[in-house]
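Design job #97: recover the sequence.
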């Protein structure tokens, strides 16, 4: 059986960022990913937005790690030639009720130390986005875009350059925790780890259950988000990033308009609970639904302007029927002292990845010294 200081389960953006950070301090770091390639699940099935940290409860992990991760992500992308752009975004109010809610949202962002927020009027909206209709909007200058697949690859490449072993096709089948280590049995072989880090994303609760951890009580509820995209002739309808106000029940930030770095325009994602963590396509919504969602902000849009695009699945901790955003769970396991658990890492996980990695390496240091 191979020996390792650290075994990281899950090769998404967060797992790869942690592998990079861990490999800078320790040798014998292994990352195990069950899929054929890294970042094939939530990490590459999203809008690629670098979030500001505006929406989250002040003092929460989501707020703190997103705000720090925002700066770190821009710095990393610039230093390592990862395609990105600081576009800014508009959060648009289309009704009097929504307009009244902007003040509370902007105050929340300021409590989270999000810089440069301002409320702009209809003329300013039109100056930035000539086809967007709104009574007023919050301008969020720190929001931007990144090619998420390239970001995952960059983290993984740097981890490997620092000596980390990145193993795909390595689904974890069994875990045997001991007093000072965990035996990891995967499709790629067996490893004994002095520290185990669970970054399995949608399957993090399953990994916690394999460990026999009480943290497995935090169940992940898969929420599918679907996208459409504008046909080529309509790409000039959107210039950058345009958001509605967040979904009232906290399930999502709302179906938004995204001009990607490669020039397409996405409409979405939607938010709908599904039973199967691998159900990306069953009962997809018709394009008419996407046109109706976008019409308040983009009156010109019709169903004929849209074609179906990809979908992704969020690792939500909020069960159906419950309102509000739940925070990330990032902690040393109370039952297995040599394990670190990350459960419910949904949005803004992409933006927060480097800040999460900093946080997790401190937890690892408490185990390995």
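Job complete. Output follows.
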């Amino acid at each position: 059986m191979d020996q390792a200081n650290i075994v990281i389960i899950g090769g998404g953006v967060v797992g790869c960022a942690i592998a990079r950070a861990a490999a800078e301090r320790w040798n014998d770091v292994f990352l195990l990913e069950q899929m054929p390639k890294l970042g094939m699940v939530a990490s590459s099935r999203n809008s690629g937005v670098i979030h500001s940290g505006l929406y989250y409860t002040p003092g929460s992990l989501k707020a703190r790690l997103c705000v720090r991760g925002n700066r770190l992500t821009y710095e990393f992308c610039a230093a390592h030639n990862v395609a990105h752009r600081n576009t800014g975004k508009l959060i648009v109010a289309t009704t009097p009720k929504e307009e009244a809610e902007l003040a509370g949202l902007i105050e929340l962002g300021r409590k989270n130390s999000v810089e440069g927020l301002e409320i702009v009027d209809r003329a300013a909206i039109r100056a930035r986005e000539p086809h967007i209709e709104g009574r007023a909007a919050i301008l969020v200058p720190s929001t931007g875009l990144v090619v998420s697949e390239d970001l995952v690859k960059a983290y993984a490449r740097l981890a490997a350059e620092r000596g980390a072993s990145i193993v795909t096709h390595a689904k974890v089948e069994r875990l045997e925790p001991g007093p000072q280590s965990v035996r990891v049995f995967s499709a790629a072989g067996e490893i004994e780890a002095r520290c185990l880090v669970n970054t399995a994303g949608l399957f993090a609760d399953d990994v916690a259950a394999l460990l026999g951890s009480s943290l497995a009580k935090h169940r992940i509820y898969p929420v599918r988000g679907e996208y459409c995209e504008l046909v080529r002739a309509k790409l000039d309808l959107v210039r950058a990033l345009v958001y509605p106000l967040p979904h009232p029940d906290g399930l999502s930030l709302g179906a938004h308009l995204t001009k990607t770095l490669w020039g397409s325009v996405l409409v979405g994602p939607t938010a709908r609970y599904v039973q199967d963590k691998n159900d990306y396509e069953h009962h997809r919504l018709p394009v008419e639904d996407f046109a109706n969602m976008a019409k308040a902000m983009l009156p010109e849009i019709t169903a004929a302007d849209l074609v179906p695009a990809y979908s992704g699945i969020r690792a939500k901790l909020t069960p159906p029927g419950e309102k509000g955003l739940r925070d990330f769970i990032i902690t040393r396991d109370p039952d297995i002292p040599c394990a670190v658990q990350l459960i419910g890492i949904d949005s803004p996980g992409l933006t927060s990845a480097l800040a999460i990695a900093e946080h997790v390496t401190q937890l690892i240091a408490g185990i390995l010294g």
